[in-house]
Design brief:
It is a single chain. This protein has 597 residues and is α/β, with parallel strands linked by helices. 42% of the residues lie in helices and 15% in strands. The strands form four sheets. A five-stranded parallel beta sheet has the order 2-3-4-1-5, with helices on both faces. Strands 12-13-14-15-16 form a five-stranded mixed beta sheet, sandwiched between helices. It has a three-stranded antiparallel beta sheet with strand order 6-8-7. A hairpin with a 6-residue loop joins β13 and β14. It is elongated, with a radius of gyration of 31 Å.
Length: 597
């Protein structure tokens, strides 16, 4: 069994090597980028699929670095025993050769453009500070040094500078935005001049500011800044050797990558670089074997496999390492949706909360293991997300919530047959659907139902519940637990009653009992049954009554000291229910004795 620590949350390649963290070897991405990448390569992959760690690995390999004594750091120790050491002499000669600019944009997840920009500005300033040795360069001109220093010694932000008016502050802020839109180009020019080598630019999570800005309402402002930043750094930059950009989604060229004709985009649809992100099946199985979990391979496959990058089967790496860590260290012998906690799942929430009847039917099909076919196109923007249903399915596919089963082409259009990748993602859908339905239930006026329950009006109870079920997604048709929880939630707030679930009464445990707060009011018992076919619902209702009678639920309530008892049997089938009332005169009676029962 392997004894290496599992690196939950580690995104720094050097630190993983220095601390001997278990690492799935992805170093051949270095060779592939040199041999197959473009001048600028954009990788779009789902979140937590290893993009940040990959950029850290690239930086470690390529970056020319010095120790405190000014000696060049030998990078070979970080790659001993790794696959890249078997690459050609040309590739290995590039190790430790280039100055590197690496920038993460994820800190720009802020409530407004001002704060988002200031966070990005801080990130840019820290990258200038990392290269502060340029101030002492004998090669840079005095003028160039002053320009360099101005980017990380600026004291804009309103804290240290007073403005005569809001208009003056606004104009100053606008100038600052314009100035920093060219900062990466300025830094790369200084680096090239000092080192006499072109520069690598690595930009991580480029779409995080855009997604956040879309939901927070300042999308156009953020698009304008990111576009200017990218154009100056990646398009009109003679100091650039090559660039690598990562994100979840390909944002349309017209929106962000305007004029970047040398941009090479690689998505989950492409066969090249297909093994560079995520774990392959063999990598996953090797890790499980290393930790003595080979018997768990089928379970891990069911829960965390299912992605298809190009033609390569891929597992969710975050979920696999989280599963191994929890199983080995915490002895938790069951899978969980680890990936669900790494993002807001806002896109799924939007889809479910705004679903029309057609989309609800498609969600039903998917949750039950079926497939749907949709046209796929990658040139989309967050601004397009609600323009059509197909855009939303595109977002779900490229962010990892759907997988490709098959593909067909019709003229210039691509159509994918898609399904939910695995049990983990299915659980995310189910939780969101349950949350959506709970929200629907909470928003309803339940006083009509409560009155019907107290009055014994079974027709009104049926009508109310059926109307509410009609608005639902029928994903959980066969789950009695769902109907139990659903109906229990409807009973909270019945005047002068407290609902209890599965409390012992008589010779068993009725599903739900409403216990009165006033001594003369009867306790109210509910027994719930489900059936898969409509013509079986009456039999289900009879089973509910038989259970109430045979298990002596009403007798148990009366023995507790309550003055009376009444009972309801309820049978659910899909989006319908029927209701029968028993014992409305006090002690229980046969249903046949009830008028219209």
């Amino acid at each position: 069994m392997a004894v290496k620590k599992i690196g939950i949350g580690y995104e720094d390649y050097k630190r993983m090597i220095d601390e001997d963290i278990y690492y799935v070897d992805k170093t051949m991405l270095i060779r592939d980028i040199v041999e197959k990448g473009g001048m600028v390569t954009l990788f779009t992959r789902p979140r937590r699929f290893g993009k940040t760690l990959a950029l850290s690995m690239l930086r470690t390999f390529f970056e020319l670095e010095y120790d405190r004594d000014g000696n060049v750091i030998d990078k070979r120790r970080y790659f001993e025993g790794k696959r890249i050491m078997g690459a050609s002499d040309r590739i290995l000669s590039m190790m430790g050769k280039y100055p590197v600019i690496k920038l993460s944009l994820k800190s720009a997840k802020q409530p407004d453009f001002y704060n988002a920009f200031m966070k990005l500005r801080e990130e840019i300033i820290s990258e200038f500070e990392r290269h502060a040795y340029l101030e002492r360069s004998d090669i840079l001109s005095t003028e160039k040094k002053e320009v360099f220093k101005s980017f990380y010694q600026s004291i804009f932000a309103g804290n240290d500078r007073k403005f005569a008016s809001k208009e003056e502050e606004k104009e100053a802020f606008s100038r600052e935005v314009g100035r920093y839109s060219t900062a990466l180009k300025t830094l790369s020019e200084c680096l090239k001049m000092h080192h006499n080598e072109n520069v690598l630019i690595l930009l991580d999570e480029y779409d995080v500011p855009l997604e956040n800005a879309y939901y927070e309402g300042f999308y156009d402002e953020m698009v304008g800044f990111i576009r200017s930043l990218f154009e100056s750094a990646l398009k009109t930059n003679d100091a650039l050797q090559f660039g690598v950009v990562t994100g979840c989604l390909r944002i349309s060229k017209e929106s962000i990558f305007t004029g970047l004709n040398h941009l090479k985009i690689n998505s989950v649809m492409d066969k090249t670089f297909s093994e560079g992100f995520g774990f392959t099946e063999s990598e996953t199985e090797n890790m499980l074997v290393d930790y003595g979990l080979e018997a768990n391979i089928p379970e891990v496959k069911e829960w965390y496999d299912g992605y298809l990058f190009g033609d390569t089967e891929i597992y969710n790496p975050w979920s696999v390492i989280s599963y191994v860590d929890s199983t080995v260290n915490d002895q938790r012998k069951f899978p969980r949706p680890f990936w669900a906690n790494t993002s807001s799942n806002q896109i799924i929430k939007d889809m479910i909360w705004h679903a029309d009847d057609a989309m609800k039917q498609e969600l039903d099909i998917l949750i039950k293991g079926g497939t749907i076919e949709k046209q796929i196109h990658e040139d989309i923007t967050y601004d397009d997300i609600h323009e059509s249903e197909d855009n939303l399915w595109n977002f779900l596919f490229f962010t990892g919530y759907m997988k490709k089963v098959s593909e067909r082409r019709e003229e210039k259009y691509i159509y994918l047959t898609m399904q939910i990748p695995n049990a983990e993602i299915a659980s995310i859908y189910e939780n969101q659907i349950r949350g959506w339905f709970d929200k629907q239930v909470r928003s309803e006026d339940r006083s009509v139902l409560h009155k019907a329950v107290l009055d014994g009006d079974t027709e009104q109870i049926e009508s109310y519940v059926n109307n509410l079920l009609a608005k639902s997604i029928s994903t959980f048709d066969s789950e009695e637990a769902f109907y139990h929880g659903f109906f229990l939630s409807l009973l909270y707030g019945v005047p002068n009653y407290t609902p209890q679930s599965n409390r012992e009464e008589g010779d068993g445990r009725p599903d739900i009992v409403l216990y009165p707060e006033r001594p003369k009011d009867p306790a109210i018992i509910f027994e719930i049954k489900t059936r898969k076919k409509f013509n079986e619902m009456e039999a289900g209702l009879k089973e509910a009554y038989d259970q109430i009678r045979d298990m002596k639920y009403e007798e148990g309530v009366l023995e507790d000291g309550y003055m009376g008892a009444r009972s309801y049997g309820i049978c659910f089938c899909k989006k319908s229910c029927i209701v029968g009332a028993f014992g409305l005169s006090g002690r229980g009676q046969d249903r046949d004795q009830q008028d219209g029962g």
